[in-house]
Every structure is written in structure tokens, then in C-alpha cells.
């Protein structure tokens, strides 16, 4: 079997205890990496988890050109972004919910629960875990995909 044989690639198993914290971080949360170029040789995908401690808000950030899909595993995290006409919008979630974050959209995660950590699984359309920490939720990046001109 050839190393370059596209039909006979191997599967990769990343056990929960083997997740790597060696990835971009934002204050108030802890990201761990499962699937990436560094862990499995992925070319176009990044996947991992985010943990937000009880009664904690993350810093404001965005993920550059990357689209981000979020699946809520545990807790009731809230996701906050800025609508220019309405101000801050808060999306409250529960386990089993999904969130889509378009490219360049500044946002933050909040965990209002005083007793329990919130855990989400995240997947991105770029192999790198792009994280740009910003001072507030004001839009500063390129035009979002699908936005109006």
C-alpha cells in the first residue's frame, strides 16, 4: 500500500484524553484541538472543543475567514454578537443545539450557570484554528459571506 494511495488511507482515532491545548486561545475559555493538520494531517478541517467555566464570559473574538459550526454538548452557554440596529444580541442554548458563526463575525461565549462548565464541540472550515481577539463586538473585518452590499 502506497503512502500516496488515496483509496487506502487510514482512519485516525483521537481519544478524549489526547486532545491538545496547543491551539489559539481567548480569555475566559479553554480550547482543545482534536482534528487538525498537526494532529491527523487534515488539509481543510479543524475540530475541537471549547470549555467555558461556570459564571464566566469569554473575551470578544472572531475566526477570520473560517466558518464555524458549534454543537452544545453540556451546559447552557450563550453566544453574543452585535447587531448595528439592535445592539448586542444574545442567543441562549441548551445541549443538542447548534450555532453557526459566519466568517469575520465578532462574538463571545458566556456561561451564566454558577455551578456548571459549558462544553461545546466546534468545527471550522479552515485547517487552522483562526482566533482573532478583539476589544469589542464592533465589526472590523472584510464583508461577511452572503451579506448585503
Automatic annotation (TrEMBL):
Segments crossing the lipid bilayer: none
Record domain Cupin type-2: where: 51-120
UniProt superkingdom: Bacteria
SUPFAM superfamilies tied to this protein: RmlC-like cupins
A Pfam match: Cupin_2
Signal peptide from the UniProt entry: none
Annotated protein name in UniProt: Cupin domain-containing protein
The species this protein was found in: Actinoplanes subglobosus
Lineage: Bacteria, Bacillati, Actinomycetota, Actinomycetes, Micromonosporales
